[in-house]
Design a protein that fits this description.
This protein is an alpha/beta fold. It has a domain of about 220 residues: 3-Layer(aba) Sandwich (Rossmann fold), CATH 3.40.50. It is built from eleven helices and six strands. Strands 3-2-1-4-5-6 form a six-stranded parallel β-sheet, sandwiched between helices. Strand 4, helix 10 and strand 5 form a beta-alpha-beta unit. Helix 2 packs across helix 4, helix 4 packs across helix 11 and helix 6 crosses helix 7. The chain starts with 10 loop residues before the first helix and ends with a strand.
Length: about 325
């Protein structure tokens, strides 16, 4: 998935410097109680964060709340933040891909990317994220990472070394060193039979398709399955449509018991996604789920976990989310 970068991308991305390169994040995450307070305030629309009973009653009347105690709500938030901490620590581990075994690589049959703020060619688009500069370019970062991961896993599976792709961000078609590797990488990905899945809104999907059709794409278009139902507008829609697709593939015998599916996304989004995946049983139960987290952009280290944890609370009380599905962190 590679195309010449738009000149509207942030300078750090254009230069190849990782804008998400973080130092220690302990103590920078939000507190669960603050997220829960904000959750109650949103339910009430009145700003009285201490009136839990009124918040519950209001939500019940809206038919999206069942019997949840204050402690249960707080526990959900705290557990979500703990998961995000673990994923963020893994995301910052620059040696993690080096610990992926050939056996794990061979088990991976699909690499899944959920769209993110921006598109492949534009760092920002007209949506609720456009004012959050820390979120600019997130879609491109996920797409390129999935491509790099697919190449690295393919090499491990067939006995070739593509570790040069471990730390390349973004994938630059004009990099002279990579030009020589591109065809070898394509051949390896085809030989490994790994397939990619991208799901997003029509504008996000179109940008990925355009990139895949470029002559200098690192990933052959024919091994990328794009879920582009026009109804898709958010993560919930993506999870539902992905589940339909994966169960069809499973029933056809193209994914089997013991195989693995890797999800590439930022940690906070993965945590909210995990509850939805579990609730809707989107993944066949005997298929392994692996998460490959990207680092949280440093300017969003407090706000992004806050937003996704609050979203997980709403999903849970609305009856569309469960506890996180069972997953392992790739290479951890």
């Amino acid at each position: 998935m590679n195309e010449k970068l738009s000149n509207r991308f942030p300078r750090g991305i254009l230069s190849g410097k990782n804008p998400n390169d973080l130092e220690e994040t302990a103590g920078q995450f939000p507190e669960a109680r603050d997220i829960v307070d904000a959750f109650y305030r949103t339910l009430q629309k009145e700003g009285d964060k201490s009136d839990f009973d009124n918040a519950v009653e209001k939500a019940k009347n809206a038919h999206r709340f069942k019997e949840w105690s204050h402690k249960e709500i707080l526990d959900i938030a705290e557990l979500a933040l703990q998961e995000m901490h673990a994923l963020e620590n893994a995301a910052q581990d620059k040696e993690r891909w080096k610990r992926i075994s050939p056996e794990t690589a061979k088990s991976v049959k699909r690499i899944v990317v959920f769209s993110a703020p921006g598109t492949y060619t534009k760092p920002v688009k007209d949506d609720r994220w456009q004012e959050k500069k820390w979120a600019w370019g997130m879609d491109r970062l996920r797409d390129d990472r999935a491509a790099r991961l697919g190449i690295v896993l393919s090499g491990l599976a067939i006995g070739k070394d593509f570790s040069v792709f471990d730390s390349l961000e973004p994938l630059d078609a004009n990099d002279d060193d990579l030009k020589e590797l591109r065809e070898n990488a394509k051949e390896a990905v085809l030989a490994s039979r790994i397939r990619f899945i991208y799901t997003g809104r029509p504008d996000e999907v179109e940008a990925v398709r355009k990139a895949l059709r470029q002559h200098n794409s690192f990933i052959p278009e024919k091994i990328v399955d794009i879920i582009d139902d026009p109804k898709i507008d958010n993560t919930l829609d993506q999870v539902r449509e992905l589940g339909k697709s994966l169960h069809e593939v499973y029933e056809a015998g193209n994914i089997k018991a013991g195989d693995s599916i890797v999800f590439v996304a930022h940690g906070p989004h993965l945590v909210r996604m995990a509850g939805l995946l579990n609730h809707f049983k989107s993944i066949p139960e005997d298929v392994n789920i692996l998460f490959d987290p990207l680092p949280i952009p440093r300017l969003g280290i407090a706000e992004y976990p806050f937003m996704e944890t609050k979203g997980k609370l709403f999903n849970t009380v609305s009856g569309i989310s469960a506890e996180s599905c069972q997953y392992r962190i790739l290479g951890a």
